[in-house]
Amino acid sequence: MASFSSFQPEADSAVPTLPESHSGIPPYLLEKATRAKNAVFAGRTKQVNERLRLPVIPQGISRDDFLKALEELKGELGGENVEVNDKPLKDGWYMEHPNTHDMMTILDEEEFVAGAVVYPGSTEEVVKVVKWANRWLIPVFPISMGRNLGYGGAAPRVRGSVTIDLGKRMNKILDINAQDYTCLVEPGVSFYGLHEELGKRGLREHMWVDTPDLGGGSIIGNTVDRGVGYTPYGDHWACHSGLEVVLPTGEVIRTGMGALTHDGENTWGVFPYGFGPFSDGIFSQSNFGIVTKMGMTLMPNPGGHESFMYTFPNEEDLGPLMEIIRPLRISTILENVAQLRHVTQTVIHSAAANTPVGDHTWAYYGMSYGPPHIRAYKLAIIDAEFRKIPGCRKIDPATLPEDEYFWSRDRIASGTPDIHELRWVNWAPNGAHIAFSPVSPIRGPDATKLFQLGKRLHEQYGIDFMPAFCVGLREMHLIVEIVFDRDDPEEKKRALGCLRDMVDEAAREGYGEYRTHLVLMDQVAGTYAWNDGALGKFNERLKDALDPNGILAPGRCGIWGRRYRGRGWEMGKGSEGRSEGDGVGGRVV
Ligand code: ADP
Prior knowledge:
29% helix, Uridine Diphospho-n-acetylenolpyruvylglucosamine Reductase, domain 2, Uridine Diphospho-n-acetylenolpyruvylglucosamine Reductase, domain 3, Vanillyl-alcohol Oxidase, Chain A, domain 3
């Protein structure tokens, strides 16, 4: 590692921990995180480049006015809370991630970059920032933790936007209610952080945090982007309850029961709908508001849990297996988001025979919940069904060493955040990743069709194929992570070409993405085009009504305000390398 330190100064620093840093690692994962960091930097050859495209000023404002505007904002937030982004772009790594750009960039690294980063300390200060943005017509881009890796990280869609880093100063757990199993959090609370706090309050034995594969993201950021976890509470958006939102023009609203004038907390977390239209939906995967507080439900400890793993020998087992999984999952005999991984995701096929798991093509990871007699009932059904596939093997956990991936799945599915999942990103030097993640029914023919589609296009572009099926409840996402060397322009071009083809081909077959990276947002939004793009037009009407000057996260999820429309800002096939359009329109209000 030391040999790289001359150009990667961050390689040798200690991994930040909780509670010193709101985005730090919990002490129980420090050693593992340090090993992960060493592995990341050992494979890194990419240099920190001098900035070649400075200054970064958003279109529509002069450099002098931009700097004047930032000076004005310093007067409102304090000088230390406004930073111009003119230093070298350090990629860091998962635990020391940048808030200035996409550390896993698939374009030129100067393309999706912030012009400045600001750190509000309260909802009132967020209001000041959006009013300021309207005064100066400067695009702003909110992040909670900015660890949205694989989807653009902390980067804004519009070059030069001012990133509002909410997490740094707004990171309180405002409430944990041990009777209702609910909590109320600010943007800078990570899954690691909430899990630590439950421990401190002696509540961890009683209630669990549902955690994604990696626990460093914020609960709010992950939830508004509709991320998932692996306990039976896996659908985070479905588990949230009530928001506080700063609208792009500076009004503050609370939704659900939070809107009661009685100070709301009593029922904020226990009933998501309140009265009247359910407005929360427009604040997820959108650019209609900045979420400053959110109610979230916690899962009661079910009184026991047990991970299980089955392997299946042949690629063709996929179809019949899906037919078995569907009724088990819909009836919640399979209780959590089920993962079916292709062998290449963990080790190359030829090496599988030498691993503790043994040779296989598909591996199923699941967990059964509840006291032993309840688990035994469900596990017997699962066993009988899975064994209908010839060659199916149940893996005995006692044969698996401590660092086996199985145990990471075991922790995550029982509410203990981990950092294990980072490993496969090191598949390539300077490893970065972007996912293709279409939704389909849990049916054999659909799974097989998507698998073949992905395999064919990966072969065509010369890319390793790493598919995993994640079965939600009535649907599944195929998650295909493309791992690429972000210092290799040719490899990035192939990765993006493959992603764009997969999105288009899958959409033609009726499969749409559930979430996507900045670079694919316009294309993916464009696939939801029924009735002459009626949904997109509806989103534009909402955007123009709520954000007439279009200052909030322009282009996020393919939604552009009227000042940007018709000026070539959308990205798609043929626009590669260019993320900007040709100017912006004038003030609307
Ligand atoms: P994470 O918290 O998982 O690290 P981010 O903070 O990067 O994720 O958030 C994911 C995406 O969701 C961001 O790119 C941003 O567009 C959006 N987002 C995050 N936090 C908020 C928020 N508080 N209000 C509105 N949008 C948000």
